[in-house]
Design brief:
By secondary structure, the chain is of the alpha+beta class. Helices cover 51% and strands 20% of the residues. It starts with a helix and ends with a strand.
Length: 79
């Protein structure tokens, strides 16, 4: 295995470990924080131009609509 492939593989493994750790890290957080953090991770890991989510939060009887861009933490947009 070439050095670059090994580095890429290690980076992918680290990303997977980070995704698995999110539930423990986000325990007790507000719904929009959880969704925002997940979108931040998805944009970074998959190298996306943007990520968008619209979820229903039954705890506050409202919808949460968020969009994330690379290296940008946009404020939540509530409906």
């Amino acid at each position: 295995m070439h050095h670059k492939q090994a580095v890429d593989l290690q980076s992918s493994i680290n990303d997977l470990i980070g995704i698995q750790a999110l539930p423990a890290i986000l325990s007790g957080q507000q719904s929009y924080d959880i969704v925002g953090t997940l979108l931040d991770a998805v944009v970074r890991i998959l190298d996306l131009d943007f990520a968008y989510a619209c979820v229903r939060d039954s705890l506050i009887d409202s919808s949460i609509e968020l969009m994330r861009l690379p290296q940008c933490r946009a404020p939540p947009i509530f409906r």
